[in-house]
Amino acid sequence: MQPVTIYTKSTCGYCARAKSLLGAKNVAYEEISVDGDADKQQDMARRANGGWTVPQIFIGATHVGGCDDLHALERAGKLDALLEG
């Protein structure tokens, strides 16, 4: 299983939806909260090629994008393969 990292904010509904999908699939993930932390937000944006909104989701070395991108992978039947590596 590839490591999963998700950058979040506590008030973000899209973050909750993304975490819910991962949880439903029993996927363990590292959550990095960027709430009020400019350094973590900068790290996230650098890693996400300028992506400033949350969530920003990474599976292994692959930048998935946000919540809609994660759900699109699931609908297309591609999420499990990405998770498996």
Describe the structure.
The protein is an alpha+beta fold and 85 residues long. The protein has one domain: Glutaredoxin, CATH 3.40.30. Helix content is 44%, strand content 20%. It has four helices and four strands, in the order βαβαββαα. A four-stranded mixed beta sheet has the order 2-1-3-4, sandwiched between helices. A hairpin with a 2-residue loop joins β3 and β4. α1 packs parallel to α3. The chain is globular. The mean pLDDT is 96.
Radius of gyration, CA atoms, in whole angstroms: 12 Å
What is the CATH domain class? Alpha Beta
| CATH architect. name | 3-Layer(aba) Sandwich
- How large a portion of the residues is in β-strands, by DSSP E? 15-25%
Termini separation (Å)?
7 Å
Shape: globular
Sketch the topology as an H/E string, one letter per element.
EHEHEEHH
* Average of pLDDT: 96
Give a brief outline of the structure.
By secondary structure, the protein is α+β, with helices and mostly antiparallel strands.
Name its key features.
85 residues, alpha+beta, Glutaredoxin, four-stranded mixed sheet, 20% strand
SSE map:
Blueprint: E1 4-8, H1 13-24, E2 30-33, H2 38-47, E3 56-59, E4 62-65, H3 67-75, H4 79-84
Helix pairs in contact: 1-3
